[in-house]
């Protein structure tokens, strides 16, 4: 999420973008993580019931070169340690695992105590990282009869029918999208037809939901348009021009509502300050859950058009 300013700022040209397609950055914290990081952690009871510590394989031989190993109850955790001139102990979670950066004067015992104190956060983030990696490795959608397509948070089934007259129809009861195509039609024609249908549904959905949240906020937007951006779910200008990514139609309605509430809240607060997030929360209390769900939805998991 970035605030874009021209060299000579015009209030009507300020734009705030909601970035979610960008690659997931490494998770970081320090020995005293800021409140925003702590808020990302699930509550302790939920973690115990729904996201237990991930199973750790028993150690085979010694840790990989450059790695250290610590035992945390029945779990074994490998990590890399980097000494630096920083003043505190820092934690970074990436695809390579856990990396710790610590001052030269901090003892190994103090570092391992810090790991034990933060082990719930560490295991949670490692588990999230593995889940994201697993989703990226899932095979891409095959554009053929019987394929499934995410739509409003559900998987719907594509039914392709060879017909002279082109057409497309969705059966909500059977969750089937029937596409009529000429017998000699290629894959790209199918993609174009489905994309056009999704964009038409996006216009209808956004047009219905925007006024709901605008009324709750007491704001007026000037216009809205569909976006095909590869880096943002939505954007808002100071003069009330809203753009929403049509690919939001892959997700359940609450996630769409969150993006709409987010963008409209910028008409009250053209920033991402605490007052802005309080505004979002006033009309969409569960925004943290939706925000996290969208951020963890990698573009690799969505159909390629």
List keywords for this structure.
alpha+beta, 34% helix, single chain, 305 residues, 5-stranded mixed beta sheet, flat
Helix content: 25-40%
Count of DSSP H/I helices: 8
For the biggest sheet, the summary is: 5 strands, mixed
Tell me the structural class: alpha+beta
Oligomer: single chain
End-to-end CA span: 25 Å
Give average pLDDT, whole number: 80
Shape: flat
- Main sheet: strand order: 1-2-13-14-12
Which parts are unreliable, with pLDDT below 50 for 5 consecutive residues or more?
1-12, 20-24, 31-59
Radius of gyration: 23 Å
Q: Got a strand count?
A: 14
Q: State the order of secondary-structure elements, H for helix, E for strand.
A: EEEHHEEEEHHEEEEHEEEHHH
Beta-strand fraction estimate: 25-35%
Tell me what you see in this structure.
The chain is α+β, with helices and mostly antiparallel strands and 305 residues long. It has eight helices and 14 strands. It has helices at 35-40, 44-50, 108-117, 119-137, 187-217, 253-265, 274-283, 287-295, and strands at residues 3-4, 15-19, 27-30, 67-72, 75-84, 90-94, 97-103, 148-151, 154-162, 167-171, 176-181, 223-227, 232-237, 241-245. A hairpin with a 3-residue loop joins β13 (232-237) and β14 (241-245). α5 packs across α6. The protein starts with a strand and ends in a 10-residue tail after the last helix.
């Amino acid at each position: 999420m970035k605030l874009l300013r021209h060299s000579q700022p015009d209030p009507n040209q300020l734009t705030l973008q909601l970035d979610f397609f960008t690659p997931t950055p490494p998770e970081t914290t320090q020995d005293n993580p800021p409140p925003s990081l702590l808020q990302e952690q699930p509550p302790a009871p939920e973690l115990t019931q729904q996201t237990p510590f991930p199973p750790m394989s028993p150690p085979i031989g010694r840790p990989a070169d450059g790695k250290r190993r610590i035992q945390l109850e029945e779990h074994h955790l490998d990590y890399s340690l980097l000494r630096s001139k920083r003043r505190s102990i820092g934690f970074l979670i990436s695809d390579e695992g856990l990396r710790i950066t610590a001052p030269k004067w901090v003892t190994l015992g103090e570092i391992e105590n810090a790991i034990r104190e933060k082990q719930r956060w560490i295991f949670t983030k490692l588990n999230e990282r593995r889940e994201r990696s697993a989703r990226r490795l899932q095979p891409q959608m095959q554009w053929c009869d019987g394929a499934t397509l995410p739509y409003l948070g559900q998987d719907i089934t594509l039914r392709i029918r060879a017909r002279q007259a082109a057409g497309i129809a969705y059966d909500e009861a059977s969750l089937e999208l029937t596409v009529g195509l000429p017998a000699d039609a290629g894959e790209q024609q199918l993609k174009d037809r489905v994309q056009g249908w999704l964009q038409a549904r996006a216009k209808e959905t956004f047009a219905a939901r925007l006024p709901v949240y605008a009324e709750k906020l007491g704001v007026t937007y000037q216009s809205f348009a569909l976006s095909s951006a590869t880096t943002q779910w939505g954007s808002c200008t100071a003069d009330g021009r809203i753009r929403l990514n049509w690919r939001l139609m892959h997700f359940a309605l609450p996630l769409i509502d969150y993006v709409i509430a987010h963008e409209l809240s910028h008409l009250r607060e053209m920033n991402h300050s605490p007052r802005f997030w309080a505004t979002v929360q006033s009309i969409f209390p569960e925004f943290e859950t939706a925000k996290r769900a969208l951020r963890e939805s990698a573009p690799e998991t969505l159909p390629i058009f």
